[in-house]
Amino acid sequence: MAHITKSAAFRLGLLVFGALAALTVVEFVLALYLNIWQLLLLVAILKAGLVLYYYMHIYRLFQADTTLDHNSYAYKLATNRLGLWLFFISDSFVFGGLMIARINLLGLTHPHLEQTVGLIVTAVLLISSFFMNRAETAMAHGDRKQFAISTAITLALGILFLIGVVGVEWQIAPFGPGDGAQGAVFYSMTGFHAFHVLTGVIFLAIVLRNGLRGRYSPEKHWGVEACAIYWHFVDVVWIFYYPALYLVGTAIA
Amino acid sequence: MKTILSLGLVRGLAWEILGTALGIGFVALVRALMGLPAWKAEPAVVFGALLGALFFLYGVGILNDWLKWAAGEETEDHLDDSHLGWRRYFGPSLDHKVIGIQYLVLSLLLMSVGGLFALIFRTELARSQMQFLTLNQYNTLMSLHGMVMIISILLGISAFMNYLVPMLIGARDMAFPRLNSFSFWIAVPAGLILLSSLFLGGFDTGWTGYPPLSVRAPLGMQMFFLGVSLAGFSSILGGLNIIVTVVRLRAHSMTAFRMPIFVWAALATSVISLTATQLIGLSFQMVMLQRLFGMGFFDPAKGGNPILFQHLFWFYSHPAVYIFVLPGLGIISELLPVFVRKPLFGYRWVAMSSLGIALVGFLVWAHHMFTSGMAEYLRVPFMYSTLLVAVPTGVKFFSWVATVWRGKISFDTPMLFILAGIIVFLLGGLSGPPNATISTDLHLHDTYFIVGHFHDTMYGGYIFPFFAAIFYWYPKMTGKRLNETLGKLQFWLIAPSFTVMSLLMMRVGLLGMRRRIADYDPALGFDPYHLVMTIMAFLTALGVIVFFINLIYTHFKGQPATGNVWNSRSPEWQVPSPMPVHNYDRELEVVGEPYDYGLPGSRYVKFHGEA
Ligand SMILES: [Cu+2]
Predict the structure, then answer these.
(1) Closest chain A C-alpha to B248 CA, distance in angstroms
(2) Looking at residue B354, what is its pLDDT?
(3) What are chain B's domains?
(4) Could you give the C-alpha distances from A40 to A30, A125, A248, A250, in angstroms and in order?
(5) Count of beta carbons in the 10 Å neighbourhood of residue B459
(6) In chain A, where are the structural domains located?
(7) Which of A27, A157, B102, B396 could cross-link with A43 by S-S, CB 3.0 to 4.6 Å?
């Protein structure tokens, strides 16, 4: 988004975050009063669409090349993007497979979980996505200080999410991995997702360190962009996993 | 000695041993700290094997550049390592041609191992009653034969995709050379872990690893699951690399419908391996988790569902056979025009049929489950979608027949293998619909009919085109031509004996011979069939031995062949063999159709600045 000013880009990021937050509230309220899975799916698709477009810039995949020189940075950048997105497609099949297992085994019930924790970790991840976008935007506009601050906040929120899921929810859940289908489904879905968050946190730490040492510039910061869209991808997964694990149908007694 | 120790492979293996030991020790330590008995074989060995594989990758040196990137250092692209000579084949080379040959060697190695397993249990089957194997040994060998061959095939197609695709599209290398090298090297520990199951109690599920049997099988089962999961990454990342390379790195003038047909096939195959492969990995990992942590995915007593495994498993494992055969069918379409000196009939249709097979292939998986107790209403749609595959496949046959029609055929060894490939794949194709049709499949399921059908599709769609490709591109790889006499001897040893064996498999299957079992009732009268099949299997193996003799013979006494041996229009043959390190010095320009053989004065490519 180099064609708009930095403050406009920041504003857009905030606006998208507002919409995502509002949709999350809608989702939660729907789950309480009008628990129809199609509606919850629709909200999740809307949220994922916003993230895919505004935070992950999916449209960049379809932009025409500015140069046809295979050795130029611009051409390689577009090539790298395509590679990363294909990786997302591939990875989606893992997450999708687990979702199929969840639908097959639990149907219109969800594991017996602490709703407050679920809402908190979801909010944490959502806020982290906002800061991730802010960090990338800052780097694209050459604002190194804002980049460092936002990346550090994202990193901290990522760790907080991991603590919330693995450190809290896993410990207080009234069932273990070996207890029924809900145990298998819950621990595998959150486990695979948490593993991705962990790799994202490591990625963030690397990008933060290299950023502080001045390795990125507004023109050349593929590392930051890759880290950002990877982080958002992990967020998109949670956009579907959160309602699937916490909201859809009735809690298993 | 110092040279040996500097090889990536040797360092990798040393690191793998270290990693495995550390992993086992770590699990024991954690268990002791948790107040449990320190030694429990399964978690320790699984974690040890996983850590060993990671350490292997580090030891080989394939992670070095990425670690440097993470540390904020720059690395050089396209390192020319040709000064290393033979040693670069044992280390993390970034050259797609070196990686292609690495794949090829590993594939041939695993093919020999898998074939040896088959010979052993085939010998056991030659007579009814058990002769020299225990039931567990039989089951382990039979199961490993399946998966070792599958991985060998995946590596074999990767060999040719890696070696050829950048050359055919006029690229300097693959889009992501480091990832390419990683994809190859991860297959090495994967293969080792898979084979280690032989020594860890084996397993008895067949290559499909269905629970609940796989939940109760010996420890070897876990090594099987882990090895396959790791090999899956090789396939996934290799597919990703091919897609990006084809989309982004083609010569500017090479439009989609002027790409060589093999590139289309590689693209279609890669679409499947990129996506579906994740689900066999996931289904296997779910069984691993069930065994390690008691997670009840497939345990009905815990609310799990064993049929779920079969859905996830076959969502990959049916399209997988298209991963295996599409490149082979692409090689058939690629070579046929060269040896009949005529244009490929219906180029666009053939190109599209590869994608068509790949896409329809995603919709057919449950035809493996007609007898497994899945919902009955699912059977009919899967029957029709499966039969639909015959349409794009038929397009290919139509094109081949029309291409050969009234051509000036020259029967060099590659062409013999191509023709045998077409015929045997036709046998495999024709024996397919009876398995796809519910009413007949209910009888054929789990009989040798399926085994015969499957081996026909694999030989026709992979093995024969694979040998054709080796004979055809060997001069490109080495600058020497494989011996024709030995090549023809190999062909006449393999093709007829294999065909007889597969037809007999179908025959005993129809008579009621169950597949996968170690023994059969002598009263059934199958003994003579099995004896002939075993003899045919040994003749086939003899053919493969002749092939290896040919490789050795050619290495020492082969005649040099540096020019356009086959008089091909394809770009890689317009430069001298073996292929220069940088592929092409000048940019490739596409100036005509790829397969206009026999059209006077026409060319497919020229080099920038050339008249
Ligand atoms: Cu199938």
Answers:
(1) 6
(2) 93
(3) 1-69 (no CATH), 93-607 (1.20.210.10)
(4) 7, 19, 7, 14
(5) 27
(6) 6-251
(7) A27
Nearest CA-CA partner of A186 in A84, A118, A92: A118
Task: Read off the pTM.
Answer: 0.95
Position of tokens 């040719």? B160
pLDDT category at B23 given cuts 50, 70, 90 is very high
Residue indicated by tokens 């074939």: B115
Q: Does the CB of A209 have a partner CB in chain B at under 8 Å?
A: yes
**CA nearest to A106 within chain B:** B303
Contact criterion met (CB < 8 Å) for B295 and A177: yes
CA dihedral (B374, B285, B184, B111) in degrees, to 10, reads: -60
CB pair distance less than 8 Å for A79 and B175:
yes
User: Can you identify the CATH homologous superfamily of domain A6-251?
Assistant: Cytochrome c oxidase, subunit III, four-helix bundle (1.20.120.80)
pLDDT band at A70 (very low <50, low <70, confident <90, very high): confident
Contact B279/A93, CB-based, under 8 Å? Answer: yes
| Count of CB pairs separated by less than 8 Å, A with B | 109
On average, the pLDDT of chain A sits at: 94
Euclidean distance between CA atoms B145 and A29, whole angstroms: 55
Q: Give helix A37-50 / helix A222-242 axis angle, nearest 10°.
A: 170
**Residue-wise pLDDT tens digits, B372-405:** 888 888 899 999 999 999 999 999 999 999 999 9
Tell me, what's the pLDDT at B83? 77
Q: How far is CA B9 from CA B89, B93, B162, B286, in A?
A: 9, 11, 20, 31
3-state secondary structure of A250: strand
Pairing of strands B588-590, B605-607: antiparallel
| Token pair 């504003």: residue | A11
Q: Check whether the bond before B578 is cis (ω within 30° of 0).
A: yes
State the burial class of residue B19 (Cβ atoms within 10 Å of its Cβ: 0-12, 13-18, 19+): buried
Judged by CB atoms closer than 8 Å, whether chains meet at A206 and B293 is answered as no
Model pLDDT, residue B84: 78
Cβ contact (<8 Å) for A90 and B278? Answer: yes
pLDDT of residue B539: 97
Any idea what DSSP says for residue B207? T
Cα–Cα dist B463/B324, whole Å: 10
- pLDDT confidence bin for A3, thresholds 50/70/90: low
Ramachandran bin of B437, using left for φ above 0, alpha for ψ from -120 to 50, beta for the remaining angles:
beta
Nearest to B192 by CA among B95, B4, B3, B48: B48
Predicted local confidence at residue A188, as pLDDT: 96
Q: Answer yes or no: is pLDDT of B4 > 80.
A: no
pLDDT at position B88 is 85
What whole-number distance in Å separates Cα of residue B417 and Cα of residue B397? 16
Distance B315 CA to ligand 1 centre (A): 9
